């Protein structure tokens, strides 16, 4: 009931339109009976009296009724649709806007599929009902009241007898709709599988041919096709079986009208015209009753989907601005982790344990550790994508929880390993955080990020579209566009996740050059995998299973026993830092050498 009220609340702002629709509904329900009433007059008055002028007038009135009813129906349908679309627009907008406030962790725990399904199929169920079903339901109820009222007025005893079948009619439709819905769902699922099989067959056609699998593919497709056929026949069976019942019950009402009504006429208690009017109007009553069963099921579906939508809308962003959040304009870039621990929700293990770390303004810090040691978690705490479970992080002496998210993030440039580029031009992708940036500014940062050269070679330069419909960029190119994007904001703090995979030697060198240039004057925190970056850092932080095991400069760390010294003395140092890290610190098997580190290592020697 709470959900129902909340759904209907979406209709509330449109109350003037709702009133228009309801009035149009009442009006068209009344006019629905117009022809029968006119025929009644013709049969009972005009014909017995041989009154030709009256007959002409009544016949003309038919046209008038049809015209006015047409207008009422137009207003009713158009306005219902208008309200429906407005409501749906608002629901989608609310959900989408709310999604923007939720932290990245929400999306990773919920999964894209779940969220998409809420935004599409759940919104669909709700929209069907709120946008259309609710008004239609109102229309049916109005029709039943108006028509039933008029029929009772014509002859209440006849009305009472004929309505005996109505509850059965309602029940049958209700039951029928219940059983046909899963059948339809099955048909849709089978169709999905059929399409999937066809799509795989087409995209994998080379493999199919190379392995001479054509016959097997034909058999596989035939099987899916048969399943779809069977699901459809099952649905058709249910649908067909319901029809005789519905027809029978409807006919039973008609028989009762004709039988008992005929008796009333014979005994002089009712005129022929009234019987005719009763009979024809009855069909206008049976229709809404049949629709009612269907609409009730629709409402149920909407009510099942509504809690899922509301749950999403009610998810409070775990990370949000404090009531009097500070807006910081200027930042030095002095970051301190004070006893910071972090556990992912629902996970008893600590991804980070008692982290104490001071990063001075302008310092270059390399975070080094094996897979799963907590490097990403550590850097995600700085822009508050995650909040520490214990301890605090300060920026220039302010607890970052007291700084407004917007101003905190404005000072942080983020370049991740996987950088997402939107389906937009290169220029738009770089200007993501500053849409009004001038072309000079964009070219300047692209040059800093070593991206200008390859962008200029594109046929349309900075106006080249990227993404699905545009040019595909290599991993290294993407990273440099992302770097330019981060630099455009002129952030005082740079967070970089060094990618070594899918980058060739030359690109590796170019990225390294770009980074050296852009890190000047900024506090930089790098998840470092290249030996050159590690060696060149002002501070190296070694993370092991969520804890800092060593901190210091390259020289300091080399002069003390520990992992770092071991790493450099080991045979791996010459070959692949990442592999060495995996073996020494990581929990899993070492990654394959991708050749990336060697290149950077040698170029910086
Ligand atoms: P790294 O970046 O060093 O590879 P992460 O910071 O990604 O390590 O992960 C640290 C630990 O936290 C790992 O044990 C990982 O399994 C766990 N972890 C990472 N992300 C999540 C998450 N969204 N939910 C639960 N555990 C996570």
UniProtKB/TrEMBL annotation:
SMART domains linked to this entry: AAA
Major localization listed first in the record, in broad terms: membrane
Stretches that traverse the bilayer: 12-34, 54-75, 129-150, 156-176, 245-266, 272-289
Residue ranges of every copy of the ABC transporter domain listed in the record: 335-570
Protein name (Swiss-Prot/TrEMBL): ABC transporter ATP-binding protein
UniProt organism field: Candidatus Fermentithermobacillus carboniphilus
Lineage of the species this protein comes from: Bacteria, Bacillati, Bacillota, Candidatus Fermentithermobacillia, Candidatus Fermentithermobacillales
Matching InterPro entries: AAA+_ATPase, ABC1_TM_dom, ABC1_TM_sf, ABC_transporter-like_ATP-bd, ABC_transporter-like_CS, P-loop_NTPase, Type_1_exporter
Positions of the ABC transmembrane type-1 domain: 19-301
Keyword Transferase part of the UniProt annotation: no
Location in or out of the cell: Cell membrane
Keyword Protein biosynthesis (UniProt): no
């Amino acid at each position: 009931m709470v959900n129902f009220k909340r759904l209907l609340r979406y209709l509330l702002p449109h109350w003037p339109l709702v009133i228009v629709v309801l009035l149009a509904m009442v009006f068209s329900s009344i006019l629905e009976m117009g022809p029968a009433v006119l025929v009644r007059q013709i049969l009972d008055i005009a014909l017995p009296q041989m009154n030709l002028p009256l007959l002409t007038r009544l016949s003309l009135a038919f046209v008038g009724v049809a015209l006015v009813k047409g207008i009422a129906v137009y207003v009713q349908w158009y306005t219902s649709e208008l309200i429906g679309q407005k409501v749906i627009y608002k629901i989608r907008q609310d959900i989408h806007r709310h999604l923007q406030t939720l932290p990245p962790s929400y999306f990773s725990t919920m999964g894209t599929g779940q969220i998409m399904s809420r935004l599409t199929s759940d919104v669909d169920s709700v929209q069907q009902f709120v946008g259309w079903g609710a008004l239609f339901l109102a229309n049916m109820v109005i029709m039943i009241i108006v028509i039933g009222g008029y029929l009772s007025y014509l002859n209440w005893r006849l009305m009472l007898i004929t309505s005996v079948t109505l509850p059965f009619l309602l029940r049958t439709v209700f039951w029928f709709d219940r059983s046909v819905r899963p059948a339809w769902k099955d048909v849709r699922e089978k169709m999905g599988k059929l399409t999937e099989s066809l799509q795989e067959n087409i995209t994998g056609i080379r493999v199919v041919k190379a392995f001479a699998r054509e016959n097997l593919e034909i058999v596989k497709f035939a099987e899916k096709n048969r399943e779809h056929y069977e699901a459809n026949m099952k649905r058709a069976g249910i649908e067909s079986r319901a029809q005789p019942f519905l027809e029978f019950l409807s006919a039973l009402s008609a028989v009762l009208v004709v039988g008992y009504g005929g008796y009333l006429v014979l005994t002089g208690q009712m005129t022929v015209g009234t019987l005719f009017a009763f009979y024809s109007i009855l069909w206008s009553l049976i229709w809404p009753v049949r629709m009612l069963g269907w609409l009730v099921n629709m409402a149920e579906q909407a009510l099942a989907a509504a809690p899922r939508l509301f749950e999403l809308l009610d998810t409070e962003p775990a990370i949000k601005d404090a009531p009097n959040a500070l807006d910081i304009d200027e930042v030095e870039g002095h970051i301190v982790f004070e006893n910071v621990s972090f556990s992912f929700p629902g996970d008893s293990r600590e991804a980070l344990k008692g982290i104490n770390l001071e990063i001075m303004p302008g310092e270059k810090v390399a975070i080094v550790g094996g897979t799963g040691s907590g490097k990403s978690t550590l850097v995600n705490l700085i822009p508050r994508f995650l909040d520490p479970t214990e301890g605090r992080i300060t920026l220039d002496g302010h607890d970052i929880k007291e700084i407004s998210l917007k101003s905190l993030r404005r000072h942080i440039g983020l370049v991740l390993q996987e950088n997402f580029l939107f389906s937009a031009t290169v220029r738009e992708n770089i200007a993501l955080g500053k849409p009004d940036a001038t072309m000079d500014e964009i070219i300047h940062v692209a040059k800093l990020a070593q991206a200008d050269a390859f962008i200029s070679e594109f046929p349309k330069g900075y106006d080249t579209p990227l993404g699905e419909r545009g040019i595909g960029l290599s991993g290294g190119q993407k990273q440099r566009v992302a770097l330019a994007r981060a630099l455009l904001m002129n952030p005082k703090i740079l967070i970089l996740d060094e990618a070594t995979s899918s980058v060739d030697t030359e690109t590796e060198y170019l990225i390294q050059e770009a980074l050296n240039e852009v890190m000047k004057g900024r506090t930089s925190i790098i998840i470092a995998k290249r030996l050159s970056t590690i060696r060149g850092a002002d501070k190296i932080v070694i993370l092991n299973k969520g804890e800092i095991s060593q901190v210091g400069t390259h020289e300091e760390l080399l002069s003390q026993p520990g992992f770092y010294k071991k790493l450099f003395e080991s045979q791996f140092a010459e070959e692949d830092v990442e592999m060495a890290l995996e073996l020494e610190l990581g929990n899993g098997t070492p990654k394959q050498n991708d050749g990336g580190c060697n290149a950077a290592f040698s170029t910086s020697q």
